[in-house]
Design goal:
This protein has seven helices and no strands. The protein is an all-alpha fold.
Length: about 190
């Protein structure tokens, strides 16, 4: 279990207004990402593609500067991995919508599998408050079915929607923490 010391709480309480500002900014960014989910999806795919390109280049440079001199068999494996990274990155940057459709298919299948496993786990383990775990599994299963039901069209907006929802909720966490800290400072 995590605990906080009095100094950490005091510093947090002292800076509650900064956390409130960050929270509001994150909520606004989340709302913007949700309202422009297709653009957010495209930007996300281009960013992931760029990361893969850079990662591929790093792996290729490493293959030629280290592995070629020390372990010839690993040299070719690193060349192959570097080229795969680089190629996948180029494809995502070149065609972000096709990439998002593919990733959304994988995401839909993932949520269905995770949902089924959570449902089975919640029913077999029955830990305290097991209903929340069951609900979480049901929600994941439903989410996966909804993604796949509208696939491939869902690939155009789901990733951006998920990014926006995540930003919105983390912003809300910041706001709630800030308001709690404010209440502790000004009872």
């Amino acid at each position: 279990m995590f605990s906080t010391s009095r100094i950490d709480t005091a510093v947090f309480n002292k800076n509650w207004s900064l956390f409130l500002v960050w929270g509001i900014l994150l909520v606004l960014l989340g709302a913007l990402a949700i309202s422009t989910s297709m653009l957010t999806t495209i930007i996300s795919m281009i960013f992931i593609g760029a990361l893969l390109i850079v990662g591929g280049l790093v792996i290729l440079i490493d293959a030629f500067t280290f592995w070629r001199k020390h372990l010839w068999s690993s040299f070719w494996l690193n060349i192959l991995v570097g080229l795969l990274y680089f190629g996948a990155g180029i494809m995502l940057v070149d065609s972000p919508l096709a990439g998002s459709v593919s990733l959304t298919l994988i995401l839909g299948v993932f949520y269905i599998v995770v949902g089924i496993f959570r449902l089975i786990n919640s029913l077999s383990v029955r830990q305290p408050k097991w209903g929340w775990n069951f609900f979480s599994g049901l929600l994941a299963l439903l989410l996966g079915v909804m993604i796949l039901e509208s696939w491939p069209a869902s690939g155009l907006f789901v990733i951006g929607l998920f990014v926006g929802i995540d930003l919105l909720f983390i912003g809300w966490v910041y706001i709630m923490g800030a308001l709690a800290a404010r209440a502790a400072v000004n009872p």
